Amino acid sequence: MTRTILPALALILAGGAATAQGLNVDLLRSVDDIDIIGPDGNQVGEVEDILIDADGAPVAAVIEVGGWLDIGDEDVVISLSELTYQNGAYTTTMTSDMLETLPKWDD
């Protein structure tokens, strides 16, 4: 699997290792494993990590897509502009097939 990194990303929020001025690590950790709901109302993935830029601003999410019971799934990077938070989950206009074509993330 190829590791793809968005050019603007400088830090990865992973296990509290990332620090930046003004970054609310607890808030970013609280989104871990939140469902992502597709346009048909079904779950199409879940948040795994939040990616931040050099200034500590969240810019993208690593989401788990595909597979079943963590078998055959993969992590992809999605811009936060593609996600909307409502009713305890994130929604996106992207289908499962569309999400699986996003840049892969291999940590």
Keyphrases for this structure?
107 residues, SH3 type barrels, 7-stranded mixed sheet, 2 helices, mainly beta, globular, single chain
Task: Please tell me about this protein's structure.
- With 107 residues, the chain is mainly β.
- It has a single domain, classed as PRC-barrel domain (SH3 type barrels), CATH 2.30.30.
- The chain contains 2 helices and 7 strands; from the N terminus they run βαββββββα.
- The protein has helices at residues 25-29, 96-99, and strands at 9-12, 35-37, 43-53, 58-65, 74-79, 84-86, 89-91.
- The longest helix has 5 residues, at 25-29.
- The relative contact order is 0.24.
Average pLDDT level? 75
> What's the helix-strand series?
EHEEEEEEH
- Given the C-alpha coordinates, what overall shape results? globular
Helix content: under 10%
Name of the CATH class: Mainly Beta
CATH topology: SH3 type barrels
Number of domains: 1
Number of DSSP E strands: 7
Just name the CATH architecture: Roll
Report the portion of residues in β strands: 35-45%
CATH level-4 homologous superfamily? PRC-barrel domain
Judged by helices, strands and strand pairing, the structural class is mainly beta
What is this structure, in a nutshell?
By secondary structure, the protein is mainly beta.
What is the strand and helix layout of this fold?
Blueprint: E1 9-12, H1 25-29, E2 35-37, E3 43-53, E4 58-65, E5 74-79, E6 84-86, E7 89-91, H2 96-99
Parallel strand pairs: 2-7
Antiparallel strand pairs: 1-3, 2-3, 3-4, 4-5, 6-7
